[in-house]
């Protein structure tokens, strides 16, 4: 009997402990009261909110709320609003304070705090949520009675959130006189409403095609791609505000015109390579700049100064987030940050000098630079042929781009940033090197009969060729006046390779020109002088010698400044030294070469006499550089001029025209240089 009782109490205790364990687990883990159940429900809701699990949030809404808004509408509304204001991260914090009990009508209220980082500024606010207890899908629980104020305080049914980027005004690019090289203007976007295109008769469609020079098939393709988008506007072209075609287009069914402000380049092709242009930011550019506040809708500098000074010119975008009523009126500004306009960029460039020089190319390929030789201010940097940067702003068709890109004249190539063989314009530099090192003197003569010369038989078949045999010994002055290749080939050999290269470094070779625009460094040789032949050819600007037009102009400034090379400036107000290279050439040497360059322009046999302007004393040097792959063949010839006015020097121009063979060599530039100096220094023909 005793054993039976022991067994009974043992079984009883096991069963009792099981009930106790189950009760404890229920009591510990499960909500005990309505308040605890409501807290659990709202905590789950705010967690889903923070994680942007909008579909899960919808499942926790009350039946009354679900009757007013579908799941797709609810999810879409959150995604569109948060996406539009770039809300991330989202921090949602439920605010609990003490015991929670239902109100008399059986509801429970909780407050919450929300913080959003937006594209404008961080936004934070508190709100109140009402929960009701009801049964959904056989589950009785607390559900959220949602309304639009959960999105932003004060929002009501029918309201929308409008997010607008406030774009800054891009800084203008100005010349030395305040003339606008880059500014803004109003243009008109021409667009089609695809859903109304069918109302346009065939004749009207054909007329639109012809007016805009867009194939009708392309227009039909645009309409087809956007079919069914009621009220959509599809841009097909952008025209200047004063374009006469707009009057006809305005009267065409389904065509819509919208004005907008865009970048404008008044000097068009004349300054295109220098100023550059702007365009829509690419995905690659956006990825690089998104941490700098850029957006996918931004316009950025694509080339030239527009690209180089993007940060200064762009300014900072602002933004506005507003609650808008059903009638479109703004009910409340949620957040606003005004845009900060970009800063202007003031250049030393003279638009008149730039335009005057560019117009002299007349579509010939070439390049030029102009400086004030006394101050180093860069007055012009020109590349021809060029392009109209406004075409990039307005938008080019595939055909227009291919035509520009495939043009054999290479209008997209920035020639003033590239190095070219300077030909005989280099001879004054060799003269200065030779005089400075004592390798030559002004009185030394070269007596060579005939048009060809070589040092000795070790040169094989290679010879230095000159244009004319003057039948008499040639000294330095005559060598410059006549542009004698043999004289300067012998001078380079007399100088020697190491002193020649060392003197070149003093003149800025193998060094970047100190302006905020990337130019190729000028070179005397690609990988050192290979032999005496290359050194001899270098003496008259051939071999592997290359110079940019600006560097050539700067070196010539030494003949104005007692042997000092002036420090260049492209931006107004720059703090800089007066000279880039002090005593690059001994003063007495610079004076000798300068006087000889005057004779190049004034001597009856001087190669520069054709560009001489009556009333202006000029000094300069012509040059013809031949580009060929091997000895014996005829290569392309480029014609050069480097010239400045001597008395009160105000203008120094270096100019190169490509492919002058059979057209007179460097004399192709005679009349052009003459007109440039006449107009800019005398106002003749202005």
Automatic annotation (TrEMBL):
Subcellular location(s) of the protein: Membrane
Single GO molecular function: penicillin binding
Transmembrane segments: 6-27
Single biological process term from Gene Ontology: response to antibiotic
UniProt domain NTF2-like N-terminal transpeptidase: residue ranges: 38-159
Family matches, as InterPro entries: Beta-lactam/transpept, Beta-lactam/transpept-like, MecA_N, NTF2-like_dom_sf, PBP_dimer, PBP_dimer_sf, PCN-bd_Tpept
Transmembrane helix found in the keyword field: yes
Keyword Nuclease found: no
GO CC terms, sorted: plasma membrane
Residues of the Penicillin-binding protein dimerisation domain: 166-330
Major localization listed first in the record, in broad terms: membrane
Family: Belongs to the transpeptidase family.
Keywords: Membrane, Transmembrane, Transmembrane helix
Top-level taxon in the UniProt lineage: Bacteria
Organism of this sequence: Brevibacillus parabrevis
Name under which the protein is recorded: Penicillin-binding protein 3
Penicillin-binding protein transpeptidase domain span: 366-676
